[in-house]
């Protein structure tokens, strides 16, 4: 759910120029462009000026405690939320990787309808991502441990357009477009993945920091020939949901900010930029979940 720039200015008590400045500086997470090429802001986003004076991890901890005191969503509410989320997440995650399907076209592709002006690959990417999201929901329900086998299973579903490479580590060196970082050599991938999973399992850091670092390191290894970004973002949500958090949908409009998180990590070896991005998206989702559960309580 989104509100206009004007409505956001009134809600946050800031000027239009100040809001547009925040948008230009990528300090508003989850904003999207509508069909008129105008920004719309998530209804549940908080004023970045106010958040800048707070520890975001503490804010998240407080909101999660508040959420856990409220009623659970009923079966139909939960299914409706997850279905709507998975469609928009499929659109955004694929768009980040270059898909030109619109949100509406993504809906049609998932219904089995072909858009004749768009490549078949993008249709298959949409179907594969949705199937992979449904699979991680099963893993969440069963509280399954994250393993190499399950990562490969997720990747197999994601790479619906290229089954020959699906679910298999790459056997050639690759580069990441627009990045100076060199991914792991093929012969080291298996050992690096085992090390990554061991470090994640044994880490005692804050959960959001752990998940952010895992995502950064997974993408740095770049274990597959294709589909690493989509698989990595699904793994991020898998681990969030397993630990009681709602999933997050990193928007296509924030892709530059998202890519910058990786550059920052490779330069500073600190996951703080990614932690900040994940935290801001989590705050939006937690606010939304708190609101809909409160609505149900008042009824």
From TrEMBL:
**Taxonomic lineage per UniProt?**
Bacteria, Bacillati, Mycoplasmatota, Mycoplasmoidales, Metamycoplasmataceae
- Using the record's annotation, list all stretches that form the Fido domain: 146-280
Q: Which InterPro entries match?
A: Fido, Fido-like_dom_sf, Fido_containing
Binding-site residues, ATP:
226-233, 258-259
Q: Which Gene3D superfamilies match?
A: Fido-like domain
Residues annotated as the enzyme's active site: 222
Name of the protein in question:
Fido domain-containing protein
Site positions for Important for autoinhibition of adenylyltransferase activity = 97
Which top-rank group of organisms is this from? Bacteria
Name the Gene Ontology molecular function terms of this record. ATP binding
Q: Which of UniProt's keywords are assigned here? A: ATP-binding, Nucleotide-binding
């Amino acid at each position: 759910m989104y509100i206009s720039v004007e409505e956001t200015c009134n809600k946050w008590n800031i000027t239009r120029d100040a809001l547009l400045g925040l948008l230009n500086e990528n300090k508003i997470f989850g904003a999207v462009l509508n069909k008129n090429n105008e920004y719309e802001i998530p209804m549940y986003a908080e004023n970045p000026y106010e958040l800048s004076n707070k520890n975001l991890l503490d804010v998240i901890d407080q909101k999660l405690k508040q959420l856990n005191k409220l009623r659970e969503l009923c079966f139909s509410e939960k299914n409706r939320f997850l279905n709507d989320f998975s469609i928009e997440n499929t659109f955004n995650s694929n768009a980040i990787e270059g898909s030109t399907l619109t949100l509406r076209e993504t809906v049609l592709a998932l219904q089995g309808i072909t858009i004749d002006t768009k490549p078949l690959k993008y249709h298959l990417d949409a179907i594969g991502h949705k199937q992979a999201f449904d699979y991680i929901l099963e893993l969440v329900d069963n509280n399954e441990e994250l393993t190499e086998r399950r990562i490969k299973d997720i990747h197999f579903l994601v790479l619906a357009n290229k089954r020959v490479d699906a679910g298999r580590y790459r056997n050639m060196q690759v580069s990441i477009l627009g990045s100076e970082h060199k991914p792991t050599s093929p012969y080291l991938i298996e050992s690096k993945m085992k090390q990554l999973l061991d470090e994640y399992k044994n880490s005692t850091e804050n959960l959001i920091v752990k998940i952010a670092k895992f995502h950064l390191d997974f993408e740095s290894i770049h274990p597959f020939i294709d589909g690493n970004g989509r698989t990595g973002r699904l793994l991020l949500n898998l681990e969030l949901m397993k630990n009681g958090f709602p999933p997050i949908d990193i928007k296509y409009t924030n892709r530059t900010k998202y890519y910058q998180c990786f550059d920052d990590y490779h330069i500073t070896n600190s996951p703080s930029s990614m932690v900040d991005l994940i935290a801001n998206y989590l705050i939006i989702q937690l606010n939304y979940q708190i609101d809909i559960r409160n609505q149900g309580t008042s009824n």
